[in-house]
## 1
Amino acid sequence: GMLLKSARETAQIGKRLGVQRLNLHGTGLGDGGIPIAQTQVVSGAMWLKAKDTLNRICDMAEKEGVNFTLENLNLLDHPGCPFGSTADVLALVSAVNRPQLRINLDLYHTQIGEGDLVRWCEKCLPWIGEVQVADNPGRFEPGTGEINYQGVASALKEMGYRGPVAMEAFASGDAEKALDSFRAAFA
């Protein structure tokens, strides 16, 4: 109920702004990104309900002419989040398997949760709607941490990904230099 209502409002605002790809969080996040309702164990019944709800969101999105991307998170930053792994979000999105729902593949979260970024890009490729990047540790721009984003960018290009790549990061210093680092990694 609440997620569908929120998704419908987001779709309508997106249409007014001319935005067709909208990010969807499967759980409400409170202060510091902590889920409002924490879930330590996600049951099969909960996943079936999630799939049903996402299909209903896809029905609405199809009527509204928009698409949603479901973002993978990580359990270190978002303890108790039911969408706290790339594997689970991929399983859910691929089970729904509709063009109105794609993965917002957040590589910062994947690095913390699973690592092996290029292989996760390959596994998720048919369902990627957007790739988000930030380096780890610190969630700063590419080039400040352990992730070889030039290598990841090259692999994405080689596997045929031509969709959007967004930086969701803090600037480690000067904001313009942070943007330049992002552009350099994904040029």
## 2
Amino acid sequence: ELISGVPFPRGTGLVTRCATQLILKRTPGSEWQAHASVSWPGPQPKAAGPVKDRASLCATIEQLTQVLCAQSVNGFSRDSIVVHLSSPDVPDLTLIDLPGIVRTAVRGQTASVVEDVNGLIESYLAQERTIVLAVIPANQDIETIDILERAARADPQGERTLAVLTKPDLVDEGAEDEVKLVLANKRKPLRLG
């Protein structure tokens, strides 16, 4: 959100249920333009098309997620939402937002949901041009964060893995020293910190 200026859908549970590819293009002038579509061949859903502003883009991502995941048994899709965004305020960069790692099926899902989401995540991690932004909540033990292990398998030299420590405001009293060790790159050393 900070890089793109696009507010992404928020909520409880698993909100991101398919890949959202945000293709940013810096353009001269002051005009902000966006166009949303889905990756499947054939007719586009009604929600696809030009988007008038950032708030509308968030709603469009939510609508397209519903369309993509509507036929799925587990509520996830391997198809993706593709947003082309041009503005003088963005870098030339493509960002991909993926679902979080699923560890167990819940009511209404089959056991294959874990494998389905893992397959989606692994397909992006394996791409050599992917920079892995490993998001690590500060209020969880580093040993329980498996994105670091996945990133190490996909990027053994650590040349394209960046870790981000989030939620420092939720650290339990007394756990601050452990978080400092993680932040200082001493608990789970990464090449790029």
